Amino acid sequence: MSDNHTKQAWSLVNEYFHSNQIDPSKLVDHELVRAYLKACQKSTPKGVSISRQGNRLYLRFKTATKATTANNGCNESFTRDGCINALAKAIAVSDKLKTLDSESEFWEWYESEIKGTVSLENDIITIGDAIEIVKNNYINGYDKCGRDRSDKRLRTNTLANYHLTYGKHFEKLNPKLQLTGENIISELNRNWGQLIVSISGSQTLCSKGFKNAYTGVLKLLRDTRLDGELTKVTKHFGVTRIVRKTEEQAIDLETFLDFRARVLGLNGYKLTKAQLNNIESRKSWFKAISFNLLYGFRCSEFKAIRNLDEPVQLGKRLVKALHDPTNDENIVIGRVMAFG
């Protein structure tokens, strides 16, 4: 497969998006990958198709000994880049089949050029080597809108996006380590383990920071075609799910009263002339802040309080105003409010 095949693939996909009025820049995550897969499947040359099983992509084509329904591995995953690469390989296969001398020669070429798997027994790849491969692929590749990142006009933006997506994570890795699944797991735990909430068999609960680092670091294994090592890592962590933590905030009475004194100019705190001229407004706002702090009201809920300053008669019962110092029940009576 040549660079020309890759450029052809991008051209066909961009043409598909344009003709179908699809803006890939508005698509994210799995939705984006599905759109690319469909575009690539619709753009394959006659006689070759792309199929998907789980997270792997396959090529289908007919030879003297294989039917068109047979899935032929092409060493590509179900990612945006994987879909583009699969289409480029489909084009290469179509070209090769047209010049076929013998089927054995074709399959020898297919194993080398299309499947092209790397064996760690024969090729020792370090994390540093893989980082250079990923960076080179990124800078000389295409963005999700199909723009060529190697364009000099996009250079500054390309390098900034590379650092944000991959570079800042790669900087924390030990470049001298051999690129193996075990070492990647160790490096992820060493650098981002504190962002993991829990790991339980089939899934990892984590923060967004770990998820981003995990996705970025896996690119090292994807671009070097180390599928076996990639599987070790994905099996270890399983499905990664982001857990958002909500921190509860508290304020003690002493701090609250000091805050009140500062706002209203009490206990020796002095207000400016402008603040003194607006003292009634400051009192009103502080009252609103105080009630919202105690009750946890939203703005609309606070505005709907009927017994804020005046008591409310409900049948035979008189509900005291919340602002009444003799009110020891603190019952809130509300009403429906319309905002617009």
From TrEMBL:
Protein origin, superkingdom: Bacteria
Protein name: Uncharacterized protein
